[in-house]
Amino acid sequence: MTYLPVTSARPEAVRVGLIGAGWMGAFHARSLSLRIPGADLVAIADPAIEAAQSLAAELGVARVTPDPADLFADPEIDAVVIAGPARFHAQLSIDAARAGKHVFCEKPGAVNLDELGRVEDAVAAAGVHWQIGFNRRYAADFLAARRDVASGAVGTPQLLRSLTRDPGSGSIPHAARVPRGTIFLETLIHDFDALNWYNSAAEPVSVHVTADALVEPGFKGAGFLDTAVVTVRYSNGAIAVAEAHFSALYGYDVRGEVFGSAGMVQAGRATATAAVRYGATGLSAETPRLNIELFADAYTAELADFAEHVRARRDGAAAPDHGVPLTPGLLDARRALAVALACIESAQTGLPAAVAGSSAGAEARA
Amino acid sequence: MTYLPVTSARPEAVRVGLIGAGWMGAFHARSLSLRIPGADLVAIADPAIEAAQSLAAELGVARVTPDPADLFADPEIDAVVIAGPARFHAQLSIDAARAGKHVFCEKPGAVNLDELGRVEDAVAAAGVHWQIGFNRRYAADFLAARRDVASGAVGTPQLLRSLTRDPGSGSIPHAARVPRGTIFLETLIHDFDALNWYNSAAEPVSVHVTADALVEPGFKGAGFLDTAVVTVRYSNGAIAVAEAHFSALYGYDVRGEVFGSAGMVQAGRATATAAVRYGATGLSAETPRLNIELFADAYTAELADFAEHVRARRDGAAAPDHGVPLTPGLLDARRALAVALACIESAQTGLPAAVAGSSAGAEARA
Amino acid sequence: MTYLPVTSARPEAVRVGLIGAGWMGAFHARSLSLRIPGADLVAIADPAIEAAQSLAAELGVARVTPDPADLFADPEIDAVVIAGPARFHAQLSIDAARAGKHVFCEKPGAVNLDELGRVEDAVAAAGVHWQIGFNRRYAADFLAARRDVASGAVGTPQLLRSLTRDPGSGSIPHAARVPRGTIFLETLIHDFDALNWYNSAAEPVSVHVTADALVEPGFKGAGFLDTAVVTVRYSNGAIAVAEAHFSALYGYDVRGEVFGSAGMVQAGRATATAAVRYGATGLSAETPRLNIELFADAYTAELADFAEHVRARRDGAAAPDHGVPLTPGLLDARRALAVALACIESAQTGLPAAVAGSSAGAEARA
Amino acid sequence: MTYLPVTSARPEAVRVGLIGAGWMGAFHARSLSLRIPGADLVAIADPAIEAAQSLAAELGVARVTPDPADLFADPEIDAVVIAGPARFHAQLSIDAARAGKHVFCEKPGAVNLDELGRVEDAVAAAGVHWQIGFNRRYAADFLAARRDVASGAVGTPQLLRSLTRDPGSGSIPHAARVPRGTIFLETLIHDFDALNWYNSAAEPVSVHVTADALVEPGFKGAGFLDTAVVTVRYSNGAIAVAEAHFSALYGYDVRGEVFGSAGMVQAGRATATAAVRYGATGLSAETPRLNIELFADAYTAELADFAEHVRARRDGAAAPDHGVPLTPGLLDARRALAVALACIESAQTGLPAAVAGSSAGAEARA
């Protein structure tokens, strides 16, 4: 061989441990292993050890454990991705931060504001990067819309809307086991973040909720909700509507719209591909069916951004600059959580509810 | 640490050498290194050695050489990607095949049918996998359209169209250096393949070309063409139109349409993202600007498919099955090349030209 | 001449008098004279007599008067179109009915439910046809959507939305003179009717309003509102959102959406024509600018339907049958008005407000 | 009554006689009677007298005759609409012109250029207005596209396309009786005019045709063609493609596209209304089914324009000015016919055919 010498300028990948090998965790694991060159998935923790082992085997990950603490204790791990149940998010973030690990946490950041306050304290004390899985920000169309807000093309936002309809078949098999508040804390929290992000010059002030169990009315008595419309009032007067539904027969439907004093921008893709069919009954096209299809690139991009942030911290380099506010952190987590918690209150009382002052609290901590 | 043991089920990546570190070669290199987990880019060959070294450094590729022969001689290389000038494609394919390397070759497979015949012989003798870079087949919308043909939703194809408009600024800086026939051999060959693929139950029989140098009329005397419309007649009566232009101010415009006895399907994406803006002058949206943007996923998918094929050969496993004809091989290269060569003749005479019998030749060799 | 004899089977047009020669009245006048063969505009009444005379001259209408009573007294007039200010609608309807004239009344039918009750009584006593100008029902896309609800393609409606954004330039010149409640009584009333019509198997039960003067904040103190979001709760559990804004820079934006247990349907046209332009900055298209452009056909269709109804009454023929509920009458006027009035209350209190029981009242009268 | 006096400023309608009460003639009759206030349909001539009588009765037209000569002799008739078989168009135009009647003639203007020359002579001698039924020019999207060419938004046209797919069920019942050349003389002539109109700064120079009987192959031997692709070369280098098919299962599909040095514009509407449905199998929408649905407004507009031209001649007023070339006259009829006739030649020889010099001939006559 007569190859010439090459000095690699390719940065070393960040080493990531995954906590939670469920559906979303497994998807993140595949992204980290297969689609994000800046990250290596090196360990998987899940008490459901078979799931962790199977995923690790599939991806060639050498380290598996039932206990997340093993990841925190591992000096070869730079960062963790937290994809377990929502009720564990805050404590896992705190433990990870204390161990000096950077954290990517699925939404919500915590299930109440006190918990999130403790995460904020731990992260601040440890000086680690903490990022939340508001993946919608990384979808090309939603980001293009945000850039239009930033450029002034929309003017001052006055009317906003964001909706999430999860795919379904007209029934919700495990409705009985869905925690109360899920539609606000785990589904609409994406919409609340999207709205807050689009209207980031203002604060959410109050909400009014109309919600019901229209898909599974039998579970409404137990507090289950599968359909919700939320009006959010912002400090700059803007009025936003967020809407969620748990069972759209035509697939996964996510849209956003910002109307302002200078124009409007819409995001959201109605079709799965650009192919359009014409037949005896008219025109037809495929619709997006799953979040991991519609947002495949967005899920990759949020983890790639995370890896870049971690690398910047590790290597003392500048954090990535996206030109517009993008990487969602603790303040974003707090704002969206505060809206979701106000919604739970409004859903119970039927009356408008105030959003706990997110900026005040956050500024006090900053 | 108390990690549990894991036996990796992840297959070993195929080791690929790249020949040609120009614009397209560099893009393929980044795909192989960063976006295709089943492939490792392990070596780069280019006589323009600085380009090769710079690319290798960027991607952490250890082996660089000015001479492709080094790649053929390297026992650690499973396969090569040929992305050099078209006039070298055939000989590089032949040399690679003789060295037992699997080949991914950018289009065209050769610049005439004799050359391609020698590639066919060498590939057949060596028993290697040979694949051509007809990336459009791997774009989600074009593939969905092909599936509609396969499913019968379109019926028997009767009218087809395919167009390629390259982005430009209204002039073509290096028009003088563009080889004659480029618009047919390097641009429209994508459209010819798309049409052949959509109408794969039939053979292209004859063509008629109308072409001109409308962007750079000063170079027409030297045989340069930047605008072309081609009518292709198929053995099942179907009539296809292929169209190319070298300078669309609004970006990269690629579309396909198949109309048949039962319906129609269209492919081609008019907008860069799903974001739509509304302002005082109306509605607006971004258009796709570059092939590597519009077809980013398709470029990745064709190389991932190649890696899967190579791995299947290496590991004695079944080749990937896509449900419809997908992976383009030598017969596809031959058919598209035969159409392109007939176009060169028709462009010179102004008369229809017969397409050299592709199936006959291919069957004789098979 | 050797023409053969013909016995005309063409029905005699109904003779219509117009009350109100303002902007909308003049548009209706032109529709009646020029676009609706089943109607003849024969008289115009408006205290602003110059406007009436000018319009009459333009259209060749022979009878002009400042006093609507002249129309009621005219035995050659079959029907009147009421297009004056909202506060006169009810009394004009009552007087017309008592004179035996059929009535087409612009929205709202009245400014409170008592007034509307008196209209109901007068119309019932006289046995005339009374129709309200909910023109959106007659737009091809909105009607197609309603047919999809009727066919079961949508299933049971669960989430609905309707929006109206009037075109504007970013300020509202006569904000000081706009009557309080206009955004609900004159703008959103179209959306309330659209929602009621889509979900006609149920009744609106309660509303919650968030509204503001975001375009003209200086007039908010005087009770002026230019931006509003309304949540409407229906007796079948469905949740609807209606939204209005008085100044969209990109033109006139009207949309509807019905999501149900079996699917979704959307109505609303984003572009003025099907022409799409591509240039250096991307794709662009014209947006609809005026209600009388976007809904030109719908305005014609509602009056043509009115003329058919009047003719059916006059000639003792069967009323037109549209296959789905279409022609909006007093019950529709009452339902939409009840929602608008509840909105005025909710806007003042900031709390949800009950919708006055429309079906109960209407049934009692029926 | 106390009505005030009004002096009508409404112009007297032009009095039109219809020749031909077939499908298209009946549609024009209804437009003239019901949708065009500037025209009165006063007489109908058709040798199939029952059709004429039935249509006259429906519309309240008093004069019916089997003989068009009665219309020419009638001093109360200002103008005629010729909607009989193509082979009679020229002689009817000549007779009408000689009688001093203005003429609206369905396409084609004649079946050969000599015939058309005689029409040109008669029209010039009589000084009447002669207009041809190229209705596509009056469709809002096609006209918007033409305005974009006029404004320079497209630059110099380089690539054009126009297609017509007639609705069908997969067979053509009366294929045996369709005159030879129909696809060029009666269908594609619309496309030829659209292309000529878009590229009106240049002349069509030559054509090349690929055509077949793919729907009804059994009639190909008798000269029947149901599928055709035409390439048209223009004097400014522009290359156009026109395409026609007689049996699209999904309805009536008409599109246009102009690509030039500064951009592109597309016309053609894919859906019947703006309503979009989403269900378990994806997104769907209705497609246009009939020319008289898709082009309803365009058919009305061309006759309204005709009426305005006739009225301008009658009243000595200025002809309507549309800002861009719009009203199609004899030169347009000649250009499109010359292209169609060249196509018939090319279809027979399989070779390119020259287009008879349209401007030369027309200028000689002018």
From TrEMBL, chains A, B, C, D:
Gene3D superfamilies: Dihydrodipicolinate Reductase, domain 2, NAD(P)-binding Rossmann-like Domain. Coiled coil: none annotated. Residues 14-133 form the Gfo/Idh/MocA-like oxidoreductase N-terminal domain. Residues 142-265 form the GFO/IDH/MocA-like oxidoreductase domain. Keywords: NAD, Oxidoreductase. Pfam families: GFO_IDH_MocA (PF01408), GFO_IDH_MocA_C3 (PF22725). InterPro entries: Gfo/Idh/MocA-like_OxRdtase_N (IPR000683), GFO_IDH_MocA-like_dom (IPR055170), NAD(P)-bd_dom_sf (IPR036291). SUPFAM superfamilies: Glyceraldehyde-3-phosphate dehydrogenase-like, C-terminal domain, NAD(P)-binding Rossmann-fold domains. Belongs to the Gfo/Idh/MocA family. This is Gfo/Idh/MocA family oxidoreductase. It comes from Sinomonas terricola. The lineage of its organism: Bacteria, Bacillati, Actinomycetota, Actinomycetes, Micrococcales.
